[in-house]
Amino acid sequence: MSVKDHSDDITTSHGDVESMLRDSIWAQNLDSVTLDHVRSQITEREVGPGEYVCHQGYPADHWIGVIQGLVKLSVLSPEGKAITLTGVNAGGWFGEGSLLKDEPRRYDGIAVGQTRVALMPRTTFTWLLDNSIAFNRFLLRQLNERLGLFISMVSFDRMLRPEARVARCLATLFNSYLYPNGSLSLKVSQEDVAQLCGMSRQRANQALRELEANGLLKVEYGRINIQDLEALRDYGE
Predict the structure, then answer these.
(1) Any idea where the Cyclic nucleotide-binding domain is (predicted)?
(2) Which domain holds residue 220?
């Protein structure tokens, strides 16, 4: 079942939402009364592999956090080809742009593997904007980090060889501000990596083998473990 940006069939669970809020930079800066109010409004949803977290063109009714798993953000080309823009790793929140501009989603959000998401209603997001200076500061920094991420992706897509493109693409999924979960492990297939990096599976596999041979990461079945994040960020320079 797909997750659409409507709250009429959302089931609520607790546990993991609390853990995510403890790690979320914006939540750490809220006073206890404000945080309790916000937590009471957030719901949680399980999303299966390949299912939609949000749909391009649908109303943006929630700010979305990734509790566990990975969400890829993608669009369709005029020819109907899916183009992956980026991935949102566990600990990250996305969709604030559509909420701030009050416009429909500009991309599809699709779960990569079993994923759990947190959904903050638009009304709660707007309430935070109106009542929390700390939250506004966080959003400014998050938008700046996101802009820097996309600028770097465009530059290394045009200038770097495939091995460096894969290295930099993977490194963006471990931005400590955007995804403050602390894990250096990514539960993805090599096909997922190819889609995230915008290349063929064969080319992505070759790149991963080179990066593994250089001690930057370790490829396991359905998982990639990062061994040297700083080297991965600088690979190809």
Answers:
(1) 26-146
(2) 160-234
